[in-house]
Amino acid sequence: MCDSSSGFTANSGAPANSGTTEAIAETIAIELGEGTRAVPVAGLGLDSLTGVELLVVGRLVVGRRPSPRLKAFLAQLRPGTLRGVRAAAFDTRVRTVLHGDAARKISRALEKAGAHVVAPPTGFIVEGREGPLAAGEVDRAAAWAGSIASVLRH
C-alpha cells in the first residue's frame, strides 16, 4: 500500500500542487508492482492496514505543518500498531532552505509505531508552489521505489 496524504477532491482544502504528491505515490505504487495501490490518507483507519506488509506514507510540504488528514492518521498509531509492517516515507517540497523535513518526521512516527523502516526518508522537488514536479523527480521516485522492492525481495 502506498499512501499519499494529499487531497484528491476539490473540497479537501489541499493546495493546487497536491497532485505532485499523488503523482509520486502512483509512481511508487506502479514500481512496487501488483498488490500495491496509492490511496489518500483521508479516512484511512487502522482497520485498513490489516494484512498490509508495506506502508509508504507521503505528504506535500506547505506551511511546515502536516495536513489535518495526515495528523489524524498518525495520531491513531500507537507503539506496536505497525509491528511486522515495513514502511517508508517521502514528501514533495519546493527547493528551499526553509522547508521542514516531513519525510523524516513521518518515518520516525512509523518507526515509533513498530514499523521496520526499509528506506531513507526522501524528498521530491516541486517547481514553485503550484508545481509541476522538477525534471527527473518521477524517475527518482521510481528508483527509490525500486530500492524498496529490492529490500522486500531479500
Automatic annotation (TrEMBL):
InterPro entries: Flavodoxin/NO_synth, Flavoprotein-like_sf. One of its GO terms (molecular function) is FMN binding. Gene3D superfamilies: 3.40.50.360. Residues 10-149 form the Flavodoxin-like domain. SUPFAM superfamilies: Flavoproteins. This is Flavodoxin family protein. It comes from Cryobacterium cheniae.
